[in-house]
Structures are given as C-alpha cells and as structure tokens.
C-alpha cells in the first residue's frame, strides 16, 4: 500500500522521505515535525516504491525502516548508497542492537534512530543530515571550480603525464597554493609522484632560489642537524671546514623534506623551531640565522596514526600541513597507465638506441589491471627491464615476469561478498555455488510437497526422473 502524501513544495524547506510499513509510526514522526518547521515530509509504507520516489531528485534525506516486509531497509541501503551517494540515509530500527547499527554504517548509512521515537534524536539527526548535504554540495562546487578553469601555467606540469581528473584538480590546487609561503604536506604512496608535484609547486611559486631536496629517512639527529643547518669549523671532531647546510642553499627557494614521517624525535623539535621562528643555528655556532625558504614536506605515512602512536609530534604535524595535497595511487587513475607505459617504453628504447617495441594485446590488459603497489616508479622499472630483455620487437607477458594480476572486478566482488552485499546472503553466509543453490532448490521443493517427487518436479519445472536422479546424487554426497 502506498500512502505518499504530496509535499507542499515551497522551494525553500528541504524535503525528507520517511519509509516505514508502520503507518502509525510515520504519523508520530509527522506530529513531531509539525511542531518543528525543520523540513517537509513525504511518507511511504510500500518500500518497493522508494527508488522510483528517489528518482524524482527532490529529497534532501531519507529515513528508512531497517526491517520491512518485501524489500527491507537492509536490501535498499546498499542500492541507495550506490545510486544516490549524496543523499544522507538514516536507518530507523526497532532494536538498539550494535551489530545492526554497525552493519548499517558499513553499508553507507549516515546515522540511525531507534524505536520508540525520541523526538530530539529525530530532530538532531535531520539537522546533521542537512549539514552533511550542505558540506557535500560545497565540496562539489569547489570541485567544479577547480575543474572548471584551464590551468594558468600548463608548462609547469609538462613532466607529469596524466589524463586523470583527480590529478588535474591537484594541478589546480598547486596553482592556487603556490604563491603562499606556508608549508605544504604532500601525502601518497611510494612512487606516486610526490617529488614531481613538489617541484611543480616550486616552479609555480616563482621563487628565484633553488629547489633543494633532502630525504630525511635514516638520518639520525646529528646527521639531520648537520645536513640541514650545517656546522661551524671545529664544531665537532672532523668538522674541519664550515658547512653551510641545505637550508642556506634553499634560501630564496624551496626546501623539500621527503619521508618526513620517519623523522627522529630530536630532529622533529629542531624542525618545529625552524617552522615557528624561521630561525636556526649552525652546529657549534651561537649566531642566529634567518631562513626564508618555503618548506614542502612529503610522506607515505598515515600521520593520524603516527600522532596517535606518539611517534610524530602533533604540534609539528599542525605546522607542516598548512596546505595538504594527497596524490592518488596509480591504481585509482588507471587511465594514466597506458600513456605512462608508452612514454617510458619510448624513453628506455631511445636510451638503448633500439626501436620502441610494440605491446601484445593480452599484455596490455594485464598492464591495465595490475595493482602497482610501487606506483609509477614500479611501472618505470618494469617497463625499463622489459625493453632491455625484449629481442622480438613485441612485448609479451613473459617480458614482465612478476606481473601477478588479480582482476579488479574480482577484488570488487570479493569486497561486496565480504560485506554481505548480495541478496542471497539471507540464506547463504558466503556466496553460493550453482551446486549449493541447486541442492537447496531440490530440498525446498521436496519439503513443501511433503517429499512427493511428482509435484516437486512440477514446481521446479523439470521431469520426475530429474528429481529422482538428483535425490540419489544428494544421498550419495551425504
Ligand atoms: N605522472 C607522472 N608522469 C611521469 N613520470 C612520473 C609521474 N609520476 C611519477 N613519475 C616518475 O616516477 C618516479 C617516482 O616519482 P617521485 O619520486 O616523484 O615519487 P614519490 O612519490 O616522491 O616517491 P617516494 O615516496 O618514494 O619518495 C620518478 O621517476 C618520476 O619522474
């Protein structure tokens, strides 16, 4: 039964869809909302109409009963989350059961409310949904802005091969933040191109000084201080000459500190002081020196985790991430794979003075499906050694010995099965084989016909002999 009530649309008050097979509960909600002009509501008691209703594109949020006859909230949630990712979904459940709640959240629900109705909880949940919607709209606007205008200085990015919108929006951000003198934190997996982006920021900044890189991983506190700040002659045994340090070299330019997540604790204090005061001392000297270098840092580490573990200072983290850029891994911008492969094949062939080999069709598929844990650097290495060993002029799979591919489709399907996002999970805890389904169908048909093979065969649309044969097979298996 449908009891959709048409909203009095005034174009200003947001519209929320409430779905529950219990009409009395929907009336209770209506009563609460009448005294709060927070939103207008449409109610549905027939859950089969939900998707058609959402297709109208007029809703700001949906409240969904978790357990309903026919299509339940549990069935609808994954579909809505996928088809209408911007609409906040709030689950209404009669049980305050943590497993149900965790399952709702995992599948994309924004919030949940429990029955019986708590009016203040309902209102705060609606308010939160509207806030999230507003943020997501703002985010979309920003994204449109970032993707809308062409790059002001495309030449700056000519070394970074890409056709990905994600990378293009990073280029826009680079142009936006380049004139700022505040630190930039670039994150992303190893080999994604963090240093290339740091160099692009330097170029776009127009700073006249040099781009000075330093990988801080593995430097102990003494080495870090000496390399970065330099030392006075005679500061320690072996310090026979004055050392300027890289910070002096980066004067008027950019200092790029790579692998910053691995910085030793004592070195973190030294770097914090530099960032706070723009001042430093050379080792063994009490002359205070000023630095005007722009500082860019990069890491493949998870800073939230490092800060929580106490291995990275929180105050330093807040200093370095004034501007933040995250470079997506290559497997999240697969459109870049083949242009990079072709580019680096040409480069490797040119370096060896041989003709660039072609790529066999089945290899192209493997290259596009591979996960690239080492990202672009791994791609370059693999392509380079394949070009070296290849003698035929046609690159084939054996030229890429460790290109183990798990298809993306299988990975996605695995994740859905793990999260019970398949309708058969009500009966089968894991995704069933055809054999398991067939067995269940025969068993169920015999159950409902009281073990009578003729009617069971009619139900299944097969002949009696097939039922007989299946039964003996099943008996043998048992
Ligand atoms: N989009 C790209 N186009 C062309 N070359 C690229 C691209 N991205 C990365 N590379 C190349 O891949 C290699 C690795 O890039 P880069 O050193 O910038 O990565 P990284 O993220 O800083 O790595 P790490 O985390 O190990 O320091 C470099 O040789 C770089 O020139």
UniProtKB/TrEMBL annotation:
Keyword Thylakoid part of the UniProt annotation: no
Classification via InterPro entries: AAA+_ATPase, AAA_lid_NorR, CheY-like_superfamily, Homeodomain-like_sf, HTH_Fis, P-loop_NTPase, Sig_transdc_resp-reg_receiver, Sigma_54_int
Keyword Translocase appears in the UniProt entry: no
Domain Response regulatory: 15-130
Ranges where the Sigma-54 factor interaction domain occurs: 160-388
Tree of life domain: Bacteria
Keywords noted in UniProt: ATP-binding, DNA-binding, Nucleotide-binding, Phosphoprotein, Transcription, Transcription regulation
Pfam families: AAA_lid_14, HTH_8, Response_reg, Sigma54_activat
Gene3D superfamilies registered for this protein in UniProt: 1.10.8.60, 3.40.50.2300, Homeodomain-like, P-loop containing nucleotide triphosphate hydrolases
SUPFAM superfamilies: CheY-like (SSF52172), Homeodomain-like (SSF46689), P-loop containing nucleoside triphosphate hydrolases (SSF52540)
PROSITE patterns: RESPONSE_REGULATORY (PS50110), SIGMA54_INTERACT_1 (PS00675), SIGMA54_INTERACT_2 (PS00676), SIGMA54_INTERACT_3 (PS00688), SIGMA54_INTERACT_4 (PS50045)
Modification 4-aspartylphosphate occurs at: 65
Listed name of the protein: Sigma-54-dependent Fis family transcriptional regulator
Organism encoding this protein: Oryzomonas sagensis
């Amino acid at each position: 039964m449908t009891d959709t009530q048409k909203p009095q649309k005034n174009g200003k008050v947001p519209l929320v869809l409430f779905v529950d097979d219990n009409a009395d509960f929907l009336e209770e909600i209506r009563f609460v909302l009448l005294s709060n002009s927070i939103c207008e509501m449409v109610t549905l008691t027939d859950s089969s109409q939900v998707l058609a209703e959402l297709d109208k594109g007029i809703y700001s949020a949906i409240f969904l009963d978790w357990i309903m006859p026919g299509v339940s909230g549990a069935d609808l949630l994954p579909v809505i989350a996928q088809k209408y990712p911007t609409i906040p979904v709030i689950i209404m459940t009669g049980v305050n059961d943590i497993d149900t709640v965790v399952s709702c959240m995992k599948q994309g629900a924004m919030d949940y409310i429990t029955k019986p109705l708590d009016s203040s909880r309902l209102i705060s949940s609606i308010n939160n949904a509207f806030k999230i919607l507003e943020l997501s709209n703002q985010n979309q606007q920003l994204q449109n802005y970032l993707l809308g205008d062409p790059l002001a200085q495309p030449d700056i990015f000519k070394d970074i091969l890409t056709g990905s919108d994600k990378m293009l929006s990073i280029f826009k951000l680079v142009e936006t933040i380049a004139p700022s003198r505040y630190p930039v934190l670039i994150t992303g997996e190893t080999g994604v191109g963090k240093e290339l982006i740091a160099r692009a920021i330097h170029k776009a900044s127009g700073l006249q000084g040099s781009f000075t890189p330093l990988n801080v991983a593995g430097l102990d506190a003494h080495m870090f201080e000496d390399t970065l700040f330099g030392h006075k002659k005679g500061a320690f045994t072996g310090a026979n000459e004055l050392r300027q340090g890289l910070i002096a070299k980066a004067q008027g330019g950019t200092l790029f500190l790579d692998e910053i997540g691995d910085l030793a604790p004592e070195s973190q204090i030294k770097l914090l002081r530099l960032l706070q005061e723009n001042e430093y001392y050379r080792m063994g000297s009490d002359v205070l020196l000023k630095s005007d270098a722009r500082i860019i840092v990069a890491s493949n580490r998870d800073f939230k985790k490092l800060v929580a573990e106490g291995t990275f200072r929180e105050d330093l983290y807040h200093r370095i991430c004034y501007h933040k850029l995250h470079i997506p891994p290559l497997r999240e911008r697969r459109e870049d794979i083949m242009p990079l492969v072709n580019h680096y094949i040409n480069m490797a062939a040119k370096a060896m003075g041989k003709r660039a080999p072609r790529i066999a069709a089945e290899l192209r598929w493997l290259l596009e499906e591979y996960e690239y844990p080492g990202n672009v650097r791994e791609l370059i290495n693999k392509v380079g050694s394949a070009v070296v060993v290849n003698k035929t002029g046609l690159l084939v799979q054996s030229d890429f010995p460790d290109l183990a591919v798990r298809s993306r489709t299988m990975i996605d399907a695995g994740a859905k099965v793990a999260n019970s996002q398949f309708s058969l999970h009500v009966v089968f805890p894991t995704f069933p084989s055809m054999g398991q389904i067939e067995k269940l169908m025969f068993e169920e048909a015999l159950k409902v016909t009281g073990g009578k093979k003729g009617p069971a065969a009619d139900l299944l649309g097969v002949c009696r002999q097939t039922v007989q044969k299946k039964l003996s097979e099943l008996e043998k298996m048992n």
